[in-house]
Amino acid sequence: MKIAQTIDAIRAAREEYGLESVGLVPTMGYLHEGHLELVRRARKENDRVIVTIYVNPKQFGPSEDLSRYPRDMEHDLELLSNENVDTVFAPSDEAMYPADYQTTVIVTQVTQPLEGARRPTHFEGVTTVVTKLFNLCRPTRAYFGQKDAQQVAVLRQMVRDLNFNLEIVVCPTVREKDGLALSSRNKYLTAEQRAAAPALHQSLRAATVLWAQGERNSDTLRAAMLDILSAVPSARVDYVSAANPTTLQEYSDTVAAGQGILFSMAVFFGQTRLIDNVLLPPGAE
């Protein structure tokens, strides 16, 4: 497994692969089983696999957890070596954003609701760094988790708009046995908060059950999620959403026949902010 830390090194590694198919798995490190499932899918579907490990400062707001975001490069590299990864790209901030750096990539509409409303500069950081990774690694396919549903929608829009010649592959959210979605930020949770955190998944399941029973009033569906979360003393709800899965715009009344829905939420446990979602595409009953 090669470790590339500079722009020249990752370009050289990619050049060696020529016309072979390349699967790219972008990560911020502190890898868990959810990341490894992306790597395994990429390994199955491509000749070569590149994993990036980079805690991108441009996607963190001024009051967010950049400085304390968990990092363990040694353990990450050990895990990736066991998954038969070809190259790991782990650049420095100086390599990615030199002193005279001036360019930002902005997707204008699908970034505005949900996470974008709470974290106004977040997706600019995501689209900028992912554009750079796409240019450097030139993947055939790029792998992302469904847990970051809005990120997936934003990146799909960017790929269409900028004519990237690659496929975005979305893999299911990996969960603990009690339903909590795997996240590097779960390590911040106290024992009490960890015991309460499965309420996110429970609330999503409640809305999903109502949807399966034919409920299409968006206020009722949001209320079902909020009722469960509001009963958890250690949880502070940032938002619950019942939105159009393509535009991410909130439904305001009854969902029309044949339309899908994205249930999503962000919830604080202390200073730790967790997100989760369930996507029910058009036709899902």
Instruction: Sketch the topology as an H/E string, one letter per element.
Output: EHEHEHEHHHEHEHHHEEE
Q: Would you tell me the structural class of the helices and strands?
A: alpha/beta
| Nearest-integer average pLDDT | 96
Q: Could you give the distance between the termini? A: 45 Å
Q: Radius of gyration from the CA trace?
A: 19 Å
The strand count comes to 9
| Spatial ordering of strands, largest sheet | 1-4-3-2-5-6
Describe the structure.
By secondary structure, the chain is α/β, with parallel strands linked by helices. Strands 1-4-3-2-5-6 form a six-stranded parallel beta sheet, sandwiched between helices. Helix 6 (122-137) crosses helix 7 and helix 9 runs antiparallel to helix 10 (218-230). It has helices at residues 7-17, 33-45, 73-82, 93-96, 115-118, 122-137, 149-161, 191-196, 199-212, 218-230; strands at residues 2-4, 22-27, 48-53, 87-89, 141-145, 167-171, 235-243, 261-269, 272-280.
List the helices and strands and how they pair.
Blueprint: E1 2-4, H1 7-17, E2 22-27, H2 33-45, E3 48-53, H3 73-82, E4 87-89, H4 93-96, H5 115-118, H6 122-137, E5 141-145, H7 149-161, E6 167-171, H8 191-196, H9 199-212, H10 218-230, E7 235-243, E8 261-269, E9 272-280
Parallel strand pairs: 1-4, 2-3, 2-5, 3-4, 5-6
Antiparallel strand pairs: 7-8, 8-9
Helix pairs in contact: 6-7, 9-10
